[in-house]
Structures are given as C-alpha cells and as structure tokens.
C-alpha cells in the first residue's frame, strides 16, 4: 500500500516538477517554502539557518512520510506565486486557509489555530471597535489576513502595510503607528521580547478560528493526502504536542 | 495572461505612479540643489576643500540605496532624541519625507560626480578667455564654467534621472504605495503577479519614454549653438541666443 502510494506520489511530483526543475526522481527531496521572518513560527538564526515551529512541524511530517525535505526561503508577498512557479512543492509558513487563497492553491487540514489580536502601548487606552479605532493608523504585514481583516472591517482606519512583521513592530516602537494587528501568537512572542516591553494586547481577539494549513499546488492531491496522513499521525503519537510545548505553554492545535 | 486583470489594476497603479513621480521630482529637485556646491567643492584643486564632498560621494555611492533608506526610516527612529524632537520627528515620522530625503541625498552624490567631471571637461581656452576679459573667479564660475558644464553633463544627468525613477521602487519597502508598492498590494489580493507587474512595468516604461523625450528636447535647445548653421539665410540668428554664436 505504502509502496503504491509512494510511486503515485513520485509520479505526481515528477510531472509537476518536470517543467521547472528538470530531472525528477523518486528520491527527490520535497521542497518546502517558508518565509523565515515570522518568529516563533519560522525565522533564521545568526548562521542563516531556518528554525521555528513551522520548520519543526515540517521536519516531523517529512520524517513521518519518510521523505527528505529541503527548505526554500521566500519573501511573504511572493510566497504563493513562488509555489505556483514551481520553486517549491509546499508552503509551511503559518498560512491561513482563506477562500481567496483557495482559488489559487489547495490546503491540507489545519496544523494550528490562529486568532488575530491588536497590540498597542500599555499607556494607551484603546477601544478596538471600528468606531473607537476611527482615524488611527494600524500596521500589518502585506498580504496577510490581518491586513485584509482591517481593510474589510475598519474602513475608517488608515492601514500601513509592511514587508515583514518585524518591520511593523519597529514602527510600533517608533510610534509611527498606533497599533499592530497580527497573529495573536506572533504578537505574544514579541510581547515576551525585550522590544515588546511597554506594549500589551488590547481587547479580545477580533477574529478567532483562523485555521493554518499547508498550501500545495492545485491538483497535487497525492502530496496533500500524504501530508494530511502524516499530520494526523504526528498529532496522535504526541510528536505535535512535544513541538507545541517547545514554543507555547498551551495547545495551539 | 488575463488582460482584464491588467486593465482592472490600472486606476490603482496610476494612483501609485503619481506618488512615484512626486518622489522622483521632489527628490530630484533637492538633489540637484545639493549637487551644485558639492560638485564645485569636489572639483577644487585644494585637498581640504574637496575632502568633505569626496567622503560624502564615497558614502552614498558606496552603499545600496535600500540600506540608506532603512537607515533613515528605521534607523533614525530608534533614537529617542529624534522621536522627541519637535522639529525632526514631524518630518522623519512620515515615510514620504524619509523617502524624499534619502533619494535626494543619494542622487545628489551621483549628480555631483557627473557635474564634477563636466566642470573639469570645460575647455581651458574658454576659461582663459573669461580671465583675459577680466572676469573674477566667481563670475567665471557662474557665467562660463557652470553653464558650460551643465550642457556637458546633461546626457549623463538624464541617465541618472531614469535610474532614480527605478530606484524609487524601494519606497514600497517603507509602506509607501508608489507604483511598485501598489502593484505588490494588488498582487496580495489577486495572486496574479505576471499581469500586475507587467502593467506596472509598462507604466514605468511610459514614464521613462516621456523623460527621455523631454531630456532630448532640452539637450537640443541648450546645445543649439553646437549645431551646424542651417544653409538658408537669416533664420539661424533667431535660434541661437545672443552671446552663444558659434566661434567662427
């Protein structure tokens, strides 16, 4: 059974990569695209090596699927175009499953659950209703659901779009923007850091049950099913919980 | 290729192009103002006078524009002194002014170097002639050397202007929605980089086309005295401004 599936997968990968990568063998590593600028989910250390929750999950999935994996670092706003262009085969970069993205790519099951929440300086009393935020400037990363959420729900807010989440935090520190909206856990991580001292969460999460999945090119069902099977396996055998505990003292599944 | 997507993106992209033009021309204006004294000092034979412009030009030509932009935008805002200054902060908190300041400083270094070369390329005979007529050094500089150097520098300056047009795309990294920033924001929604970037590229090309044409027109005008006289009678005197008649 596994043998058959591996062959089918190899064929699919071969067909898919033939266009861009040339020769393709069953032993070809699975190429995973990630951003590397989204702590604690994916980031680079001083030596330029990728690490973080996404990387650990991807490695666990690859071990489960018994496939070799390589990582490709790609800026966020080009990450879907890069997948479609065949630069890598799957995106493990804490990407929210949205209807718009589903037009362009297919998603696996969720591998964590996100919420969106505002952060702002402690001394500021922020009312995060659309009326309370009117006239304020909010920072978010370009091409994220946070940016989209503000555009759709807070028409009177001026939104500033950043290439990376880190740059949005820099401008929050500098006082150029009144608040940042981002994935709650990314904000959580930043608030724990030295730079985040003096800032806090404002109000309740504005959007819950934002499911994070792995994106693959449309039609690559074999790869998607393999990833789903591996995902179920690592959740059941406790590998997932182990990785989760490395980053957060509560479950994010 | 989806032409509807390209056309649909056009209004937003033109909005971005307007910002790109503002960045280009405002920074170009201040850059030019700064470049003239820099170039004069840089062309000086005295080591003490040319040292400072030399260091300035070396720094701005020796580091990437993106690094300079980040130093001004994210770098300066790290200092509490800057953030608390009632004079600096209203300007430096705006990405618009950060971009204009950086682009102006950057392009000034290049223009200064172009002008320096042009000043040194002014034929020595013309300077001697000015001296022989009793012009002072400053008068010679203002009336003979600079106007002459400006004509010599014009083609290279046009090149620099076009390079800055494309360099201004970096403004998109500091939250500005210039032509490139707008294109990237549209792509974040439609996932159609090919169509969107192609359309943005066409707009950049159209701007370049107009710039090239405009510069060629100016070149044609200011170098009127360099052209051979038309063979027909009279006419020629009207075209060439007084005092710029061909030498023989």
UniProtKB/TrEMBL annotation, chain A:
Gene3D superfamilies: Periplasmic binding protein-like II. Its main location: other. One of its GO terms (cellular component) is cell envelope. Residues 1-26 form the signal peptide. Keywords: Signal. Pfam families: SBP_bac_3. This is Polar amino acid transport system substrate-binding protein.
Automatic annotation (TrEMBL), chain B:
GO terms for cellular component: ATP-binding cassette (ABC) transporter complex. NCBIfam families: HEQRo_perm_3TM. It comes from Roseospira goensis. Pfam families: BPD_transp_1. The keyword Hydrolase does not apply. Belongs to the binding-protein-dependent transport system permease family. HisMQ subfamily. Residues 226-248 are annotated as: Disordered. SUPFAM superfamilies: MetI-like. This is Polar amino acid transport system permease protein. It is found in: Cell inner membrane; Cell membrane.
